[in-house]
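Query structure, 349 tokens:
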């Protein structure tokens, strides 16, 4: 049997279950659990572990199809990305089957900043330019995912990471969170993972949806998070608190059903001065999937590269160089203490 998971996740500071208990459940002797995470969707279990002396992210699920899809997607993308030098996915350190029918894999822990952390450190006057350039980068990344015959299925600010390449000081983009990935051999499909605040409208009324168009909406919502500081839905301005705060889950669900059914765009205006970026984000966030652009359209059409936009093509790298000098002041990156979280978290302003 697995360790008492609920008790462990309820009190993260307390010691995890005994090494013998973990080793028995995992059916592995070279893994030591450092910290469990709250159970994710579909019974997904995640933990920061010590794997043969290095930190790893343990992911276990009873759903063999979900497990196999993630493994196959990561393996194929690892191969397809290896010549690009700027796009990456986590390396798989081990794959095994635990007791009680759990299928597990261990991934490398990404030593960098999530997009949520990264954008919060960028000065407001630079956010528009950074989002503008990042849109093409993210569009290109999703293009390679889709041409590899997989969808991502879980695109949000907590599954996109930046890290610095010490060899040439380049900025690398790392896509994580592939537990929602599926093969593109059959459409439409049931969505596996529904990240809070980044779930498309159609998921609220349909049992099966077009997963490529679903990825597109998530890209649009992620760009919206960069320009506005919060997702397109699920947040509202509070006069009492003079801040944008999360709305109750019931209210969010009712709003998303209306968006999907009637086709209304009920999000607050996109805060960008760039009309090209604005129009592309509006297409990505179209309520009806049939009216929505695919995520890769930005990269394939070269729309956002048609003209120069201050502060030039190296905006992301310039910002990264500024941030690196501030790292000791900013604090300890999350990866040093725990792996990337499965779900997004509310952003209170």
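Result returned for the query:
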């Amino acid at each position: 049997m697995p360790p008492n998971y609920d008790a462990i996740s309820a009190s993260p500071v307390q010691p995890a279950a005994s090494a013998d208990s973990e080793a028995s459940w995992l059916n592995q002797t070279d893994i030591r659990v450092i910290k469990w995470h709250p159970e994710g969707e579909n019974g997904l279990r995640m933990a920061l572990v010590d794997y043969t002396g290095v930190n790893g992210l343990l992911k276990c699920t009873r759903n063999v199809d979900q497990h196999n899809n993630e493994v196959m997607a990561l393996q194929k993308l690892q191969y397809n990305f290896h010549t690009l030098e700027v796009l990456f996915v986590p390396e798989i350190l081990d794959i095994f089957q635990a007791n009680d029918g759990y299928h597990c894999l261990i991934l490398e822990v990404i030593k960098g900043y999530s997009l949520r952390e990264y954008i919060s450190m960028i000065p407001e006057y630079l956010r528009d330019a950074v989002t503008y350039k990042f849109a093409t980068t993210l569009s290109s990344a999703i293009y390679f995912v889709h041409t590899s015959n997989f969808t991502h299925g879980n695109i949000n600010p907590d599954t996109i990471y930046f890290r610095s390449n010490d060899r040439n000081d380049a900025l690398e983009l790392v896509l994580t969170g592939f537990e929602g990935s599926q093969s593109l051999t059959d459409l439409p499909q049931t969505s596996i993972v529904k990240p809070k605040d980044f779930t498309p409208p159609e998921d609220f009324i349909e049992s099966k949806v077009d997963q490529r168009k679903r990825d597109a909406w998530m890209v649009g919502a992620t760009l919206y998070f960069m320009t506005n500081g919060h997702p397109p839905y699920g947040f509202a301005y509070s006069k009492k608190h003079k801040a944008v705060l999360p709305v109750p889950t019931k209210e969010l669900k009712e709003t998303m059903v209306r968006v999907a059914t009637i086709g209304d765009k009920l999000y607050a205006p996109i805060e960008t001065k760039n009309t090209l970026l604005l129009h592309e984000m509006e297409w990505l966030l179209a309520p009806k999937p049939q009216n929505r652009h695919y995520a890769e359209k930005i990269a394939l059409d070269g729309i956002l590269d048609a003209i120069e936009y201050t502060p030039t093509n190296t905006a992301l790298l310039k910002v990264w160089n500024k941030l690196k000098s501030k790292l000791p002041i900013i604090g300890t990156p999350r990866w040093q203490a725990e792996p990337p979280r499965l779900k997004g978290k509310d952003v209170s302003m």
